[in-house]
Amino acid sequence: MTQPLAGKVALVTGGSRGLGAATARALADAGADVAITYVGSADKAARVAEELVGRGVRALALQNDQADSSRAPQLINDVVTQLGGLDILVNNAAISLEQGRTVDDPDVDVAILDRMHATNYTGVIAIIRAAAKVLRDNGRIVNIGSGIGTRVGVPGLADYAATKAGLVGYTRGVAHDLAPRGITVNMVQAGLMLTGMEPPHPEMLKGMVSNLAIQRVGDPAETAVAIAFLVSPAASYITGAVLDSNGGYTA
């Protein structure tokens, strides 16, 4: 079996379940040693790490609350210290809260929305800034976005959409900043899938599926394949790109 990522070290945030766990498995199968992060699901994260070790690579499960940007440097330091470096960063960790609540809803919890912005946007930026200092030349960064960042489609998702739309611009800017070192920076806009994140309201989900070209919920493994390609040597001339893996939601 070809292992194009043999000898590489990857960090996948939010790797205890869903797309993060599927991505960690895909990178391990390609030969990379993989660190994953979790917030509160220590048992799930430990099981994923154990599974990765069973695939013949080194693996770590590190607790990290991405909403606290000050923790980013220590997270990156832990990966480098324990696995010997960093070549690949996949910013997958995200939360979706207060779904269906419009901006004029008197009962919306602004503190919860602020935590979502901190996790999905400023927390990702902090990790990229910390990782950029140690990421080896010809490394890879992939940020996980959402088709909702491009096409919202239904009410009650403005804040979530904003966190993902902001990452598009940041991805393209960082792609220019790190290109002289051969580091590529891309985004995968993931679609509807069973990830362990709070599911949409049933009526909202029904409406979102009806807008897809491929009218079904996706499997995380389908998007993990796209991520694995972007971090591979085969994608060395792709940077600043936004790849939709969402069943045609933005088509």
Roughly how much helix do the residues carry, as a percent range? 40-55%
The tally of structural domains comes to 1
Which CATH C-level class is it?
Alpha Beta
The second-level CATH architecture is 3-Layer(aba) Sandwich
Full CATH superfamily name: NAD(P)-binding Rossmann-like Domain
Could you say which overall geometry the principal axes of the C-alpha atoms support? globular
DSSP strand content: 5-15%
Task: Give a short account of the largest sheet.
Answer: 7 strands, parallel
CATH level-3 fold name:
Rossmann fold
- Low-confidence region ranges: none
First-residue to last-residue Cα separation: 35 Å
Topology of helices and strands:
Blueprint: E1 9-12, H1 18-29, E2 33-38, H2 42-54, E3 59-63, H3 72-83, E4 88-91, H4 110-132, E5 140-146, H5 158-178, E6 184-190, H6 202-210, H7 220-230, E7 242-245
Parallel strand pairs: 1-2, 1-4, 2-3, 4-5, 5-6, 6-7
Pfam families: adh_short_C2
Family: Belongs to the short-chain dehydrogenases/reductases (SDR) family.
Keywords: Oxidoreductase
Task: Explain the overall architecture.
40% of the residues lie in helices and 15% in strands. It is an alpha/beta fold and 251 residues long. The protein has one domain (9-245): 3-Layer(aba) Sandwich (Rossmann fold), CATH 3.40.50.720. Strands 3-2-1-4-5-6-7 form a 7-stranded parallel β-sheet, sandwiched between helices.
Brief digest:
With 251 residues, the protein is α/β, with parallel strands linked by helices.
